[in-house]
Write a structure and sequence with these properties.
By secondary structure, the chain is an alpha/beta fold. The protein folds into two domains: 145 residues, Bacterial extracellular solute-binding protein, family 7 (D-Maltodextrin-Binding Protein, domain 2, 3-Layer(aba) Sandwich), CATH 3.40.190.170; 125 residues, Bacterial extracellular solute-binding protein, family 7 (D-Maltodextrin-Binding Protein, domain 2). It contains 14 helices and twelve strands. Strands 1, 2, 3, 4, 5 and 11 form a six-stranded mixed sheet that branches.
Amino acid sequence: MNRIPVIPFITIFVLFCGCGSYESNPKITFSHILNDQSEWHVGAVKWKELVEESLGDQIAIRLVTNSSLSKNNQRTELEMVQAGTLGGSWESSILLTIIDPRWTVWSMPWLFDSYEEAAKICDSELGEEMLASLEQKGIISLAYGFNGFRRLTNNKRPVVSLPDIRGLKIRVPAIQMYTSLYRAWSADPSQMNFGDLIVALREGAMDGQENPLHVIRSSGLYDLQPYLTLWEYSFDPIIFCMSKPVWEKLTSEQQNAIKKSARAAAAFQRETVIQNEAAHLEFLRAHGMNAVTPSRENIEVFQSASLSVYDEYKSIIGEDLLRRFREATMP
């Protein structure tokens, strides 16, 4: 597989040794679900470099990819971070809905129009409130990176209008909102661990899936999915998470350096995602994908068919929080 033209991406976990106290030079292991060619890894590598520049050899950082310490299971990975078995990880906002369903708000259909708009909310007081809310769940969340806008792929036909998606068996993440959304469009969605997706596509159990362009590329989905729909229908940030039990055993100097480095690395990772979009699309087209963009009129039909999902999730997200997000993204 051709390499994505970015710095390799590393998963990071933080582990501290000893019973009840840490060594003078603690070890940090930080993890993510994707491989070392992914844009998640770009941010992890940058973070490691910045921490080492700031703290020297005070902390030994170990980077782990493919969630290998949790057997490629993101939910297990998150639980390990909460328990302090792992020091940290990049986690999608989608996964965080497991511990706080209000995080569904980030994924709501057509909430964001652009990366610039999404970044504005990430860096706002509202974005900071969302980060702070995870502390009660055992997570110190430090920064927002980008997974990106999610695009649809399938092996049946181009999807440019609502009738095109009807009946397609689409793999969606383990979050009920996407299941409700695709059912509202008369598709046939199924929740499935990403690690099982390739087999399901090869065996015909699924017709399609949805993910950002860099995941479609780095996972080789272009070999199985000839049709690509380009739309900004759902946005997916990734969150730089640290284990609260681990965090509290760091010195204030170490905490400050890790937080500052995480924010700088997340900003770098975001820019990498934005800058690589055109290159990813060019690569996917060169490898046989038929990329189509629905018209504005067809998007409006999809949006109208999505309104029932907003009604359903008012009580889950919280009507006030959903209102604040929608007002913050209005022109």
